[in-house]
Design a protein that fits this description.
The complex is a heterodimer of chains A (108) and B (123). Chain A is mostly beta strands and 108 residues long. Chain A has no helices and eleven strands. The N and C termini of chain A lie far apart (35 Å). The chains are: A mainly beta (108), B mainly beta (123).
Chain lengths: 108, 123
C-alpha cells in the first residue's frame, strides 16, 4: 500500500501568513488521485481538494493544491482564524486507500 | 441536505462483536459508495471499508479483513459495519462517509461525513 508522509507535523504561523503543507507518497499516486481534508478541533473532516488541485464546492480560493507523482502540496495563501486545524492528505489511486498522518496548523 | 447518523457504538470486551449502523438521508442512497473511516483517540484517519453503490462490491483494509463486514440496506437507506473478534486497537471513533460521486475515481473521495460514533474495546 502507498504510505503518505506529511510534513511538517506541526506548523506554527500567525493569521495572515502563508502555509505550505507537504504530502509525500512512497510511490507514485495513480492519476494524481490525491485529496486534502481539514479537521477542526471536535469536528468531522471536511473535503478541501480532490484530484490534487480541484477545490471542493464552497472552499475559499485561498486554499490551493498542487503537485504530481509522489509530491503534493496544500497551500493556504493567507491564514484566517478558522484555518487553524489539522490537515490530512488521502490517496485514492490504488487500494488500500491511505491517509497521511496529518499536519497541525497552530497559532504562533 | 445530506445527513449521516451513526449508532451502535459503546464499550465492548476484546473478542466480542458489535454492529454499527449509519442512517443516511438527503441523497439517492443506492447509487453512492459508502465508506467507514476510523480515528483512534488523538490519532489520524484510517480507511476501514467501502461498499460500492452500483454492485455492492466491498473493499477492506488489511487490518480488518476477515473480521469486519460492511453491508447496506438500500430499502432502509442504512449502512452497516459488523465488527467481529474486536481488538483493543480497534478502539476509535468510526465515521461513515459518502462518496463525492456515484461513479469513477470520486467514488473514493468523501464529501459528507457523519458525526462519528465511539467504539471502545477494553476488558
Amino acid at each position: 500500500e502507498i504510505v503518505l508522509t506529511q510534513s511538517p507535523v506541526t506548523l506554527s504561523l500567525s493569521p495572515g501568513e502563508r502555509a505550505t503543507l507537504s504530502c509525500r507518497a512512497s510511490q507514485g499516486v495513480s492519476g494524481n488521485y490525491l485529496a486534502w481534508y481539514q479537521q477542526r478541533p471536535g469536528q468531522t473532516p471536511r473535503l478541501l481538494i480532490f484530484g490534487a488541485f480541484t477545490r471542493a464546492p464552497g472552499i475559499p480560493d485561498r486554499f490551493s493544491g498542487s503537485g504530481s507523482g509522489t509530491d503534493f502540496t496544500l497551500t493556504i495563501s493567507r491564514l484566517e482564524p478558522e484555518d487553524f486545524a489539522v490537515y490530512y492528505c488521502q490517496q485514492y489511486g490504488s487500494f488500500a486507500l491511505t491517509f497521511g498522518g496529518g499536519t497541525k496548523v497552530e497559532i504562533k | 441536505e445530506v445527513q449521516l447518523l451513526e449508532s451502535g457504538g459503546g464499550l465492548i470486551q476484546p473478542g466480542r462483536s458489535l454492529r454499527l449502523s449509519c442512517a443516511a438521508s438527503g441523497f439517492t442512497f443506492s447509487t453512492y459508495a459508502l465508506t467507514w473511516v476510523r480515528q483512534a483517540p488523538g490519532k489520524g484517519l484510517e480507511w476501514v471499508s467501502t461498499i460500492v453503490g452500483s454492485d455492492s462490491s466491498t473493499h477492506y483494509a488489511n487490518s480488518v479483513q476477515g473480521r469486519f463486514t460492511i453491508s447496506r440496506d438500500n430499502s432502509k437507506n442504512t449502512l452497516y459495519l459488523q465488527m467481529d473478534s474486536l481488538r483493543v486497537d480497534d478502539t476509535a471513533i468510526y465515521y461513515c462517509a459518502k462518496a463525492k460521486a456515484s461513479g469513477g475515481s470520486l467514488t473514493w473521495v468523501f464529501d459528507y461525513w457523519g458525526q462519528g460514533i465511539l467504539v471502545t474495546v477494553s476488558s
